[in-house]
Amino acid sequence: MSSPVRKDPQQTRGSYVMPFHEKMDYKCQRGFLAPYRGQRYHLQEWRGAANAPTNAKEYFNMKHSSARNVIERAFGVLKGRWAILRGKSYYPLQVHCRTILACALLHNLINREMTYCEDVDDEDEGDSTYIETTNEWSQWHDDLAESMFTEWQLRNA
């Protein structure tokens, strides 16, 4: 993996993706897009032409799962290289965010400027917090899923 930080990240109104676990009940709120419950989610469920999404919620979940996998791999690489990212952070949120950004930038600089980089193992933390839902963000979530699915259908027509 050459870089965990994409050169042209796709941003969506300041939102982010969090790992999805079936046992958790993540809800949409401002800045957080949860996958749709009761719809296929994991990438292995989408393999093969006969398993294409049939509605906007399935399509959104497929893209959400794909993005989650990319993010998990990127953080696995960063955590493998930078010990400060492996444990719990007791720094203020702004310091924590800057630390992650600095680690990603240094990782990319090292990969660009140095010829040797050993592989690192992924690590999983599994920490999560309860997030309350908002109707406004849930509606925006539904509208985004419909728009993504419609565009995908037009491209594949």
Automatic annotation (TrEMBL):
Keyword Transport (UniProt): no
Record's subcellular location: Nucleus
A single Gene Ontology CC term: nucleus
Keyword Hydrolase: yes
InterPro entries per record: HARBI1-like (IPR045249), HARBI1_dom (IPR027806)
Origin: domain of life: Eukaryota
Residues of the signal peptide: none
Cofactor: a divalent metal cation
Domain DDE Tnp4 stretches: 25-108
Xref: Pfam families: DDE_Tnp_4
Keywords: Hydrolase, Metal-binding, Nuclease, Nucleus
Single annotated GO MF: nuclease activity
Protein name as annotated: Retrotransposon protein
Organism expressing this protein natively: Cucumis melo var. makuwa
